[in-house]
Amino acid sequence: MTNAHPGARLRSLMDSGVIAAPGAFNALVARAVARAGFDACYVSGGATSVAAGVPDVGILTLEHFCRVIREVADGSGLPVMADADTGFGEAEMVRRTVVEYHRAGAAGLHLEDQVFPKRCGHLDGKALVPTDHMCEKIEWAARASKACSKGAFIVCARTDARGVDGLDAAVERARAYLAAGADMIFPEGLQTEQEFADFARALAGPGRPFPYLLANMTEFGKTPLIPLSRFGEIGYHLVIYPVSMLRVAMGAVTRALETLKREGTVAPFIDQMQTRQQLYDLVGYMPGTPWEFPV
């Protein structure tokens, strides 16, 4: 295991090509992500919230998010990009959020420019904070990153402006966020592959370095399903799949519960289960021998 900061590890990976980061809502899923051969992992605010039985509207605390991040980072051993919603407060709280996420083992976080209480990026009815308000948060986040990680911790700015004021407004905000110190930009709610390509080209204009770009491949929203390789071709560095594994899991759980209620036995779906040995293998447990915490 390298001693490099996870943010430095993720930057190095992104410098080499586009990276997929499946969402993990607990440490067991995180171990499965690593076992499957992925290079990075993602902690979604939406998945973290609904896994706790609440909607994704900023209800959970900073401490709750940090606990999940720590478990996912420890469980996977991978660089973890983490959702920080609106930063759990104003500028000084954003500073604390960066420090606490860094301590929990995250490679970086993304902050969004919605007003609180926020809404899912693929819902209508969103409202944005003023650009200078968001820039102040980014400035505090960037200073905190320098203080706690010598700038290795990645500060990603998410803008939801596409769904409120249009694509040009999203580009304008993204440029301001980069000037304020953001390392990466996350344009949320884009509706076509062409919009993703246009957004990337607009940020890589004359005299401007090409910033790290994050794309959100969530299902059943406003964005079509676009292959990872295509995102790499049009200039994106990290593609997150925030709720995919939770949706798969809960689909299977719901169907299994319906069958168990109807049939009174697990026999009809036992062949769909992870076996006891497969579970033991995933967590690194061998009965009769001491279990070692992953390092």
> Would you count the extended β strands for me?
8
Q: What oligomeric assembly is this protein in?
A: single chain
Specify the CATH architecture of the largest domain: Alpha-Beta Barrel
Percent strand equals: 5-15%
Low-pLDDT ranges = none
Instruction: Please list the strands of the largest sheet in the order they lie side by side.
Output: 1-8-7-6-5-4-3-2
The residue fraction in helices comes out at: 40-55%
Q: So how many helices? A: 11
Q: In the CATH scheme, what's the topology name of the largest domain?
A: TIM Barrel
Order of helices and strands: HEHEHHEHEHEHEHEHEHH
Radius of gyration: 20 Å
Sum up the structure in keywords.
295 residues; TIM Barrel; alpha/beta
Summarize the structure.
The protein has 295 residues and is an alpha/beta fold. The protein is built from 11 helices and 8 strands. The chain has 2 domains: 6-242, Phosphoenolpyruvate-binding domains (TIM Barrel, Alpha-Beta Barrel); 251-283, no CATH class.
